[in-house]
Amino acid sequence: MVGVPNVTRADALAALRNPLAFIATRWTPRPRTVRRAALAALVMSVVIVVTGGAVRLTGSGLGCPTWPKCTDDSLTATGAMGFHGAIEFGNRMLTYVLCAAVGWAIIAARSQKPYRRSLTRLGWAQFWIVMSNAILGGIVVLVGLNPYTVAAHFVATSALIAVATVMWQRTREGDGESRPLVGGAVRQLVWFLVAASVLLILVGTVVTGAGPHAGDSSEVERMPLDWETVSKVHAVLAWIVVSLTFALWFVLKAVDSPKDPLDRTRDLFLVLLAQGVVGYVQYFTNLPEALVGVHMLGSALVWIAVLRVLLALRERPETTIELPGPAAEATVGSPS
Questions:
Q1: How far apart are CA 300 and CA 158, in angstroms?
Q2: What does the alpha-carbon distance between residue 36 and residue 175 come to, in Å, rounded to a whole number?
Q3: What is the largest CA-CA distance in the chain?
């Protein structure tokens, strides 16, 4: 049985001054642990999209009518608030789970040896996005689910997913200089794909803001646009993203691309096909809540798949530290 080391007063003071550095001096996670921590943060960023969609689709957006408290007199939902209060308050509580996942990713990245500042920065970027989006979520409630603030809330979550995806990818790479795996023309095509995907997400928020699911049963302001027209624009953009993905796959095959970019492009194409099927079915069945929720999950998965295609176009080798001449010679000349 291994004894627990004594913690001195100096240790306690050091932990208070810089708790992350204190943990890092006493714990070295395995690379697999760091990857899992980054993946957990990414998964929770997707979960918060789905649960946020559930709040809107069940009409529970004002289940807690104020913020940061649930009501003027209670921090939590009460039994009198019923189903809607429980749904909205439950979604707020999941923000703390998301914070815990991001915190774990930050601690794991900070404790990794050798220390990688780039990973830690990506973890902190997620933390500040979560904090900013929590405040924005409060503003959404205080302004009565104004559709423009709801759209901004979703866009901020998409930014969180982007940073979490990059961090997850970077845990499986080194910190060496980025080296492209494909030519400049292919990379340019992928950037067109990314831009079209961003536009698709933005127009999707407009579809939500103009559509029938306002988020609450009361009179909620909607964007003054024709919902069906915006939906058709959204569908056209989706077909543009699909076409660019299809073209990219053929281009990668033609230039004899490495396996990873081809695999990630194939994955994106399959996710897009599934998302397209859900999108058309929900449109022609008058937007059933369950399918709209699945479509929101699909939107997050499409965005992750697009980013993975972009990140697969280059590689980052492990950085190597060259020893000084005499030390190197001594190392080479030493007996094995």
A1: 7
A2: 19
A3: 81
> For 307-324, what is each residue's pLDDT tens digit?
999 999 998 887 644 434
- CA–CA separation, 308 vs 6, rounded Å? 45
CA distances from 204 to 79, 194, 284, 285 (A): 35, 15, 17, 18
pLDDT (tens digit, 9 = 90+) per residue, 43-97? 999 999 999 988 888 888 888 888 988 888 888 888 878 888 889 899 999 999 9
The string over 153-178, giving b where at least 16 C-beta atoms fall within 10 Å of a residue's C-beta and e elsewhere, is: bbbbbbbbbbbbbbbbbbbebeeeee
Please state whether the peptide bond connecting residue 68 to the residue before it is cis, i.e. omega within 30 degrees of 0: yes
Cα 12 to Cα 19: distance, rounded to the nearest angstrom:
9
Unique residue bearing structure tokens 């998301």: 98
Q: Say what the pLDDT of residue 17 is.
A: 63
Share of the chain above pLDDT 70, in %: 88
Half-sphere exposure of 181 (CA within 13 A, CB side): 18
Name the pTM for this structure. 0.88
